[in-house]
TrEMBL record:
PROSITE patterns: STAS (PS50801). InterPro entries: Bact_StressResp_Reg (IPR051932), STAS_dom (IPR002645), STAS_dom_sf (IPR036513). SUPFAM superfamilies: SpoIIaa-like (SSF52091). This is STAS domain-containing protein. Residues 7-118 form the STAS domain. It holds the Pfam family STAS. It comes from the Bacteria.
Length: 134
């Protein structure tokens, strides 16, 4: 995804996972470019899991929701599990009120919980360095 201003998204590698953060609202063309970039990186990096952080978004429309579902399904077909994190409360209320179907899309509260979900699904029984302390 090429931009002339601040980065709209970032995709970082952390061990066998990719962490993709959406920093601002994306139009349909930008969302589609993000989808293609992320799916390409899954193969190139041989990623086993993907976390998509949408915490910066105060709106998630039907196209965005459908694109996230598509990313998750394509990633699954390429051998990676996807977890979407950071859905804001108002966004979640709006999605439910509008009847947006997230299908089997996995979600978690934040990045830490998203990584924990991936650890449990991809390497069951493995202890994680992100274990919570109480």
């Amino acid at each position: 995804m090429t931009t002339t201003g601040p980065r709209l998204v970032s995709i970082l590698r952390q061990q066998p996972y990719l962490i993709a953060s959406i920093h601002t609202a994306l139009d349909d063309t930008q969302m589609t470019a993000f989808q293609h970039d992320l799916v390409e990186r899954i193969g190139r990096e041989r990623s086993r899991g993907v976390v998509i952080d949408v915490a910066a978004l105060d709106v998630l429309d039907s196209f965005g929701t459908r694109t996230l579902r598509t990313i998750a399904e394509v990633a699954r077909l390429r051998g990676a599990v996807t977890v979407v994190v950071g859905i804001q409360p108002d966004v979640a209320f709006a999605m439910v009120a509008l009847g947006m179907d997230t299908g089997p899309l996995l979600t978690a509260l934040d990045l830490e919980e998203g990584l924990d979900v991936l650890d449990r699904l991809i390497a069951p029984g493995r202890s994680t360095s992100r274990s919570r302390t109480t």
